[in-house]
Prior knowledge:
Elements: H1 4-13, H2 18-91, H3 96-146
Helix pairs in contact: 2-3
Amino acid sequence: MTNPQAFRDAQAAFGMDPSKMTETFRATAEKSMEQSREAYARMKTAADEATKTLEATIENAHSGSLNLTKRALDGMRTQAEMNFSHLEKLAGVKSVSEFIELQTSFFRQQVELATRQARDIQSASQSAAREVLQPSREAAERAAGKTEF
């Protein structure tokens, strides 16, 4: 068995005061706990921000997708209406020259419509891409503002 007095004498010989060791240990443990709490708070904040960014990105992607789908469906509807109207006009053709004139006009309208629709879809796609990337861009800017070098 160890003699408690001998242990205290040995500690004193090495310059270690047991009461101060306890205080030092307690202070170190408290400091470690505080650092752990701060680290946890930073991680929680970062996770919350990442979640918000992801949710906004998904919402923007969904909205952009719906917009593109709507535009595509509108384009198909316009195309179908144009085709039906053209067929009605063709049914009343009285001469070859009138047929050629109708076909030429219809072809020109088709090209113009396709060009407008392509521009519209391209513009909507670019807008959707910007909106999808916006939450990530804002999060990166916030993170860069918080970063200390």
